[in-house]
Automatic annotation (TrEMBL):
Protein name, per record: TIGR03915 family putative DNA repair protein
Protein origin, superkingdom: Bacteria
Domain DUF4130 intervals: 83-250
Amino acid sequence: MTQILYDGSYEGWLTAIFEIYEYKLKDVVFAKEETSNTLLFSNTHSVTTDEVKANRVLNGLQERLSHHGFHNLYFAFLSELDQIEEILFRFTAYVFASKINVEGDLSRSEVLNVKKAAHLTGKESHRMKAFVRFKLTKDGLYYAIIEPDCDVLPLIEQHFKNRYADQRWLIYDSKRKYGIYYDLENVSTVEMQFESNPSSSFLAEINDENEEFFENLWRNYFKSVNIESRKNTKLHIKHMPKRYWKNLTEKIPNLNKR
């Protein structure tokens, strides 16, 4: 068994696929550099991300897959499901070994699992476009904290750049410890480390003095449009799962209310 050690990026994974074929590696498992433990009785192959090698794999896949199938690979990778790298590798090997498009062969577990993983990421990115709640800081920056199941920031950045093109904003993924920042011209990736999730006291310190007022306005609006007699908690939770609530203004009680 060979452990493939890579940097966790999509380009790094593509480089690893190239080198698996280049060095004829067998029985591979993938591990990210920062979380890797050497496997018992295994060899370790370290991968340095190489744009040329990654693009050669991408070009080969693009020739053999539909536009939708090609993008599904990236969506599936961002799902971060357990063993998704191995699933994607088996799918890729099947694609390269076949003379026809394999996307419709759902009898193969790797094909079906890639499709499911891509669907999961797509659904999560769609939800994040609706569930992001911005707050204003004292220096005029709008920020939001999210904690999605999948790594969706690369998929939603264009949406928010188009929608909020006239203001500076930051969306921070507290699960993955990085965010995307828009400076009125470009979107860039930023990394921030907290010992835990940013505390309410810390956020209160950096917030604009009118932020609490506008948060309460939003809570009151949300409450006023709710029709109690038509309340359907089960349906509500289906469309807005509880795991998102801690970052939704309308779901956080007004702690200062007397």
